[in-house]
């Protein structure tokens, strides 16, 4: 005799299968199963493939990013380089302004008393010819400058006005062979005429051999010719030569003015004011 009738065997079997399936899913929900061997290998392969693909596709992105970074860096470098050049130029201009202020201060501290009427002029050019040693000044007839007027600097006599135009003038330098000035040896008051020799030197002529002249003596303007103030420094005696066949000494004078570095000068407009 059968335990279950035939009419109930199929429904019971179906119910048993459903119960087993339910228990299987319920168990999987509570505790996920571990990877099977082939699933683990497949997962490793897919992970490696994904990393490789990410590396391949991210390389152009990184390369483009580096290129953009280098381009921006180059632009910044150019901008910084231009700013550095601008600051260097401003620094040079500030230094020039400071040097100009220092030179003007030296002019104001000139030891030789200046006549009341003088004008400050700037050296704007040098005569390139071989015939004259001269300066071009940025002041002229409109400023009261006339031919023959004395030109001085803090170091001493520079020269005299040779040519005059409305807005500029030309100064014949002390060392030019065409320059002549009545002068005195400061220590002994010995009188003579200072003439240019060229090459940055002068000579004091018509000094008798009997006069006491020594190397290192200062030579100053006598003030007798009417344009240069008395006592303005002309230069310093550097050598003396006496000839038995002549009654005059050969006195070599070195100017105290550095003509290559002179940038501002005084022009004496009126010596008698």
Explain the overall architecture:
This protein is α+β, with helices and mostly antiparallel strands and 273 residues long. 36% of the residues lie in helices and 30% in strands. The strands form 2 sheets. Strands 1-2-5-4-3-12 form a 6-stranded antiparallel β-barrel. It has a domain of 154 residues: Thrombin, subunit H.
Question: SSE layout and pairings?
Answer:
Elements: H1 6-30, H2 37-108, E1 117-126, E2 134-137, E3 150-153, E4 156-164, E5 169-173, E6 180-185, E7 191-198, E8 201-208, E9 218-221, E10 233-242, E11 248-255, E12 264-270
Antiparallel strand pairs: 1-2, 1-12, 2-5, 3-4, 3-12, 4-5, 6-7, 6-9, 7-8, 8-11, 9-10, 10-11
Global Rg: 51 Å
CATH architecture name of the domain at 117-270: Beta Barrel
Q: Determine the CATH superfamily of the domain at 117-270.
A: Rod shape-determining protein MreC, domain 1
- Main sheet strand line-up: 1-2-5-4-3-12
Strand-and-helix sequence, N→C? Answer: HHEEEEEEEEEEEE
Number of strands: 12
Strand content: 25-35%
Which CATH C-level class of the domain at 117-270 is it?
Mainly Beta
Terminal CA distance reads 162 Å
Question: Characteristics of this structure?
Answer:
alpha+beta; about 35% helix; six-stranded antiparallel beta barrel; about 30% strand; single chain; about 270 residues; Thrombin, subunit H; six-stranded antiparallel barrel
Short description:
This protein is an alpha+beta fold.
